[in-house]
């Protein structure tokens, strides 16, 4: 009898221990889950965010820990608090991000349903399917549904918006399946110069890299060039367009090939740079030149364009630059990053009421015309003239191109950019293009480099 009782006790202890362990594991899972998407916090500010509204972005939190001292993030049952007494190295929070309207927008990914490994996790009448990473940008997919007869085509050519495909359904299916991945675009040099009998390898990139059909067809003047194994060979003096088309999808790239007789002119190279033409494409109301999204006083973004924050490519490049700057004792942080269309409406209206329209247009963009809406631009450390000539400003001016950034509104270039000098406003364009612009000359603006205009219509 005594023995038996002891055994029950042991089992009880084990059970309690086990339950505690489960709680502990659960707690720690919650803890890592509750990372926050935001741009920083103001001094002494305590932010309360409902747990249900929180969308996770791990990198951001790492970033805060790295940059802010004495940050307290408290995880409570239904919400998180973030507080600090010292944010001198931190990020400034645009509290507006958390006002009701924008908040809803940013965190509207709640209760969404997504596919992982082609399996639907939950069912709903309004589906938002998270697509694989390589499909994040400008792609179309076909959705298949599974019913008792197997898979059937549900909807063709659905647009991927902000990492998701949205569609409505009244029926419940066992699973949804992304079947056909469209080749969204082909990119290659817009212009190639080649001498007679010279061979040049052409780099052709497909986006996404693994579309369902990779088959390409090529059209060109066979008297002027030959084209095999992605290699152009000049045959005769002249020029031809090498058209690279997808066999099954509606996309193509055009490469202007100029074949020249070999000459030894020194000034030739300079001429060629000048005559280089860049491919301009307009997609979903957004203009791209040389693959770069263009936003200025001439080229705007649709109201609905919202990447939800600074893009991953921006942040990755920024972290790299920040680490490098730190080695030179320069502290960099994002003072103002992504701004939605709605946010810019408020900001611009405020400036107009303070300074008048003409003055406001020189330093603030009208809604839809702000690069901050791209998620590829940010104001670093400060956004006023006090930043000029600081060690940080000098460092950025000398080094930012190495990490893929350009000073978007260089000194003395208002007639091209439409904006006063802003040493703090960086735009991510990628290392390749940033270097090219940097090498093109001191303070060359994006507008000058690509021969673009930046003027409001009125
Ligand atoms: Zn800015």
Total strand segments: 26
What's the number of helices? 11
- At the first level of CATH, what is the class of the largest domain? Alpha Beta
The CATH architecture name of the largest domain reads 2-Layer Sandwich
Which shape, going by the Cα principal axes?
globular
> Fraction of residues in helices?
25-40%
CATH-defined topology of the largest domain: Muramoyl-pentapeptide Carboxypeptidase, domain 2
Low-confidence stretches: 28-71, 75-81, 84-125, 265-275
Bound molecules: zinc ion
- Strand portion, in percent? 25-35%
Question: How far is it from the N-terminal to the C-terminal residue, by CA?
Answer: 95 Å
What's the gyration radius in Å?
A: 27 Å
Mean pLDDT: 73
Overview of this structure, please?
- The chain has 458 residues and is of the alpha+beta class.
- The protein has 4 domains: 29-106, no CATH class; 115-181, no CATH class; 185-277, Immunoglobulin-like, CATH 2.60.40; 292-450, Muramoyl-pentapeptide Carboxypeptidase, domain 2.
- It has 11 helices and 26 strands.
- It has helices at residues 2-33, 58-67, 100-106, 268-275, 312-327, 341-355, 357-363, 391-399, 414-417, 431-439, 446-450; strands at 47-50, 69-75, 79-86, 115-116, 119-120, 126-130, 140-147, 150-161, 164-168, 175-181, 185-187, 191-195, 199-201, 205-207, 216-219, 225-228, 231-234, 238-246, 252-260, 280-283, 286-289, 292-294, 334-336, 377-380, 405-409, 422-428.
- The strands form 8 sheets. It has a 5-stranded antiparallel sheet, with no helix packed on it. A 4-stranded mixed sheet has the order 12-19-18-15, with no helix packed on it. The protein has a 4-stranded antiparallel sheet with strand order 23-24-26-25.
- A hairpin with a 5-residue loop joins strand 18 and strand 19.
- Helix 6 crosses helix 7 (357-363).
- The model is unreliable at 28-71, 75-81, 84-125 and 265-275 (pLDDT under 50).
- Bound molecules: zinc ion.
- Zinc ion (ZN) binds next to loops.
């Amino acid at each position: 009898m005594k023995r038996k009782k002891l055994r029950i006790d042991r089992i009880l202890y084990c059970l309690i221990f086990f339950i505690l362990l489960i709680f502990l594991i659960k707690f720690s899972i919650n803890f890592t889950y509750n990372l926050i998407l935001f741009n920083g916090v103001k001094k002494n500010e305590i932010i309360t965010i409902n747990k249900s509204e929180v969308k996770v972005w791990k990198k951001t939190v790492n970033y805060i820990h790295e940059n802010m001292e004495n940050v307290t993030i408290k995880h409570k049952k239904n919400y998180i608090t973030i507080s600090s007494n010292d944010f001198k190295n931190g990020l400034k929070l645009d509290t507006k991000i958390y006002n009701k309207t924008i908040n809803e927008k940013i965190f509207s990914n709640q209760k969404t349903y997504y596919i992982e490994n082609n399996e639907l996790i939950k069912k709903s009448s309004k589906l938002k399917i998270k697509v694989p990473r390589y499909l994040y940008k400008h792609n179309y997919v076909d959705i298949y549904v599974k019913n008792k007869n197997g898979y059937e085509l549900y909807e063709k050519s659905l647009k991927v918006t902000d990492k998701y495909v949205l569609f409505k359904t009244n029926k419940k299916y066992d699973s949804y399946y992304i079947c056909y991945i469209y080749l969204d675009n082909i990119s290659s040099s817009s212009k190639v110069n080649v001498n007679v009998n010279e061979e040049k390898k052409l780099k052709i990139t497909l986006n996404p890299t693994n579309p369902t059909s990779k088959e390409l067809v090529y059209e060109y003047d066979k008297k002027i060039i030959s084209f095999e194994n992605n290699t152009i060979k000049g045959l005769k003096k002249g020029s031809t367009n090498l058209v690279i088309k997808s066999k099954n999808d509606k996309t193509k790239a055009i490469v202007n090939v100029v074949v020249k007789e070999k000459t030894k002119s020194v000034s030739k190279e300079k001429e060629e740079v000048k005559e280089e033409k860049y491919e301009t494409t307009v997609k979903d109301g957004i203009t791209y030149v040389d693959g770069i999204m263009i936003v200025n006083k001439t080229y705007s973004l649709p109201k609905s364009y919202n990447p939800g924050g600074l893009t991953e490519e921006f942040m990755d490049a920024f972290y790299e630059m920040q680490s490098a700057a730190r080695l030179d004792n320069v502290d960099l942080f994002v003072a103002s990053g992504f701004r939605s269309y709605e946010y810019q409406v408020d900001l611009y209206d405020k400036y107009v009421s303070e300074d008048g329209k003409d003055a406001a247009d020189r330093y603030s963009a009208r809604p839809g015309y702000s690069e901050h809406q791209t998620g590829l631009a940010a104001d670093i450390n400060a956004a006023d003239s006090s930043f000029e000539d600081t060690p940080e400003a000098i460092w950025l001016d000398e080094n930012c191109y190495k990490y893929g950034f350009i000073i978007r509104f260089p000194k003395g270039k208002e007639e091209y950019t439409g904006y006063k000098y802003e040493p703090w406003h960086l735009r991510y364009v990628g290392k390749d293009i940033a270097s090219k612009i940097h090498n093109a000359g001191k303070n060359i603006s994006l507008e000058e480099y690509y021969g673009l205009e930046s003027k409001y219509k009125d």
